[in-house]
């Protein structure tokens, strides 16, 4: 079974190399680059990959993934981000899973897609709580069953058939430090605020602000047991509440401007 791996990038020169190294088992690797201004393409060219240039659009994260699918040739498609790594055990499980029909003599694999668990590394520590494990992501799809990704921020795949779940995980280097987290929050909150505004979110006020922030912190710290990840877990829970505050503050700005 031929496997195509697709990586969408934008200024991922720091992370891309190890990602592509972990994909050496794939029959085809496609890098869809969104106008990177760093050394992303230089890093990509060190590997046997196909590079596709795609226009950068702040509210379009499904587009580059779908473009990669259009250009791919594999019978199975694996999507992976530049800050993720396929472990040796996961590699073996992927090969075994997409080869099931030939091994078992079945005419068709019962699964048309697989979700893969992710080990999220935050502050150089693997988080087991705060909603960070097993953190399944739908990433492996059978051609003919997969249709497309849709959605601007948290893009979701559209496919026909049954979803399976792999046992072995990929590594996700999610956040290295506070500065990086704040930078990402500033970027993603623009998109989230715009989507909420377009969805006609109720006018933000003091009560909605307070409720959203307290609810988010309670969810992370108590319900998802961030305290079991120690001081780093508490910092992450507070960060999530802060991130929610930033998104709603930007939504409030859009709502105020719209009234003028």
TrEMBL record:
Residues 4-94 form the Glycosyltransferase 2-like domain. InterPro entries: Glyco_trans_2-like (IPR001173), Nucleotide-diphossugar_trans (IPR029044). It comes from the Bacteria. Signal peptide: none annotated. This is Glycosyltransferase 2-like domain-containing protein. CDD domains: Beta4Glucosyltransferase.
């Amino acid at each position: 079974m031929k496997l195509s791996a697709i990586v969408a990038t934008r200024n991922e020169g720091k992370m891309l190399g190890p990602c592509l190294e972990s994909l050496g088992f794939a029959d085809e690797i496609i890098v869809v680059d969104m106008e990177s201004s760093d050394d992303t393409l230089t890093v990509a060219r060190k590997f046997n990959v196909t590079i596709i240039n795609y226009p950068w659009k702040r509210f379009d994260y499904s587009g580059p993934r779908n473009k990669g699918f259009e250009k791919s040739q594999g019978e199975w498609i694996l999507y992976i981000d530049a800050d993720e790594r396929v472990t040796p055990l996961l590699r073996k499980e992927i090969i075994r899973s997409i080869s099931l029909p030939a091994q078992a003599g079945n005419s068709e694999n019962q699964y048309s897609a697989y979700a893969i668990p992710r080990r999220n590394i935050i502050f150089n520590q693997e988080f087991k709580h705060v909603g960070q494990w097993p953190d399944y992501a739908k990433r492996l799809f059978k051609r003919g069953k997969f249709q497309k990704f849709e959605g601007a921020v948290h893009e979701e795949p559209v496919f026909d058939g049954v979803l399976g779940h792999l046992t072995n995980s990929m590594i996700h280097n999610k956040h290295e430090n506070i500065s990086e987290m704040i930078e990402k929050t500033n970027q993603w909150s623009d998109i989230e605020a715009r989507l909420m505004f377009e969805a006609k979110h109720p006018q933000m006020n003091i009560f909605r602000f307070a409720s959203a922030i307290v609810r988010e912190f309670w969810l992370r710290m108590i319900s998802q047991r961030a305290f079991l990840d120690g001081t780093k877990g508490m910092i992450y829970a507070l960060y999530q509440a802060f991130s929610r505050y930033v998104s709603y503050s930007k939504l409030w700005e859009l709502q105020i401007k719209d009234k003028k």
